[in-house]
């Protein structure tokens, strides 16, 4: 169990699709039993305590995220990438500025 607080942008970032991460990206991971709070973006208020970007087969469970811009965000920032086989269960997301749980994806604009 870890406690993270007062960070900029995100604390856990499961990434896929970036050129330096290779073709597979993050996969087959577990993020569990963490307490995360006070995670904020100075730019646009879009920071997530736990952020999955185009990864696959990741389980997020029994985490608490609060007083951040967003609790948990699952998406894919890069063209051709999709976050797949995600399990999000039994998390306590509260008192976040925008969203508790956010799903998004690639936008050509």
Can you tell me about this structure?
This protein has 109 residues and is mostly beta strands. It has one domain (2-103). The chain has no helices and 11 strands. It has strands at residues 2-8, 10-15, 27-32, 34-40, 48-53, 56-61, 64-66, 70-75, 87-89, 92-94, 99-103. The strands form 3 sheets. A 4-stranded parallel sheet has the order 1-4-7-10, with no helix packed on it. A 4-stranded parallel sheet has the order 2-5-8-11, with no helix packed on it. Strands 3-6-9 form a 3-stranded parallel sheet, with no helix packed on it. The radius of gyration is 13 Å and the shape is globular. The model has no long low-confidence stretch (mean pLDDT 83).
Are there runs of 5+ residues with pLDDT below 50, and where?
A: none
Largest sheet: 4 strands, parallel
What is the strand content?
over 45%
Strand segment tally = 11
Give me the secondary-structure category. Answer: mainly beta
Mean pLDDT: 83
Can you list the strand order of the major beta sheet?
A: 1-4-7-10
C-alpha termini separation: 39 Å
Estimated helix fraction: under 10%
User: How many helices does DSSP assign?
Assistant: 0
Counted up, domains total: 1
General form: globular
Topology pattern, helix = H, strand = E: EEEEEEEEEEE
What is Rg?
A: 13 Å
Give a brief description.
The chain has 109 residues and is mainly β. It contains no helices and 11 strands. The mean pLDDT is 83.
List keywords for this structure.
single chain; 109 residues; mainly beta; four-stranded parallel β-sheet; 11 strands; 53% strand; globular
Show the helix and strand layout.
Layout: E1 2-8, E2 10-15, E3 27-32, E4 34-40, E5 48-53, E6 56-61, E7 64-66, E8 70-75, E9 87-89, E10 92-94, E11 99-103
Parallel strand pairs: 1-4, 2-5, 3-6, 4-7, 5-8, 6-9, 7-10, 8-11
